[in-house]
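Subject: Protein entry, chain in single-letter code together with its fold tokens

Area: Proteins and the way their chains fold up in space.

Attached in line: The record itself begins immediately under this heading.
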Amino acid sequence: MSHLGDVAHAMPVFHALRAAYPAAEIAWAIQPEFAELVGGARGPERTFLFGRRDGLRAWMRMRTELLAWAPDWTVDAQGNVKSSMVALASGAGRRSGLARSDWTEPFGANSLTDAAEPAAGPHAMQRMLALARHVAPQVAAGTERFDFDLDTEESKRGAALFARHAPPGDGPLWILHLSSHGDVRGWPHEHFAALARAHVAEGGRVLVLSGPDEEGAGRVLARTVVDEPRIAHWVGQRGLRELAAFFDAAARAGAHLVACDSGPTHVAAACGLPVTLLAGPQDARRTGPWPAAGARPSAASPHRIVQAEEAPICSPCLARVCTHPAGPVCMTGLAPLRVAAALIEATASVR
């Protein structure tokens, strides 16, 4: 009901319900811009679309459609007041959700009839795993699924997209996902350009990827970083299942994603693509790529977190607007060469 990353995190709950109750008809209340991601051949039987910019009309439409469908059970995988209002609007007799201590807005937990045990740790995915165990206890621990259920044709299209957009050559491929303009979590675009040039200087390959929100920055970089055949640009990529299929193919090809905290970061991690997260105002222990990452890749996680060498004491702040006198120095101070060194170590460890 809020962010693309939340949808990616909720996939284990959906998969657990589908496995535990194969005869059930499952629907998903979701914002329209995210609905495509869960709409695969084995996805929910229907989606209820909540257009948050439609105000009161969105709530009236949601309530009318939910009451007409008449669900027996609602599972709240969001944990805020907005999602609790949807759960209540469903009219379902059973309303399950997170432990109160795991809600971002605990007041909303009053909407529940039963709650999961508290999560084993601070990560958003740990909250979802606790909820999955609560609503589908018959699904064995360790068999959780995090993927988007790509079918054979989608996987083939993903492989074709990867072949079309990846630059030629044999060097290690880094996919740089640009930040959207004005995002306090974003990395300066000139830093992305410097990182791309540093990597190809060492014999590597780079694909600069931008979605609809980053398309303007993608066009600027495509005009300024044009003197190197091992740097390719995919500007304005659209389609969430297409993106998931591309990331799935990139993972199988041994590529590596470099990105800030964003929805595509979590989509990539769910597809098995190793991620180097450029962290600043966000708390990577809570919203970093899953499995939870540290400063170096490990047997437990292929991902890693990179922060500025001299990060300010206010980081992480979780703020949406930076109030530091010098601006978001936790991100602007994260040097491209520091990221390049971390990436070289990360990619070498998985060869």
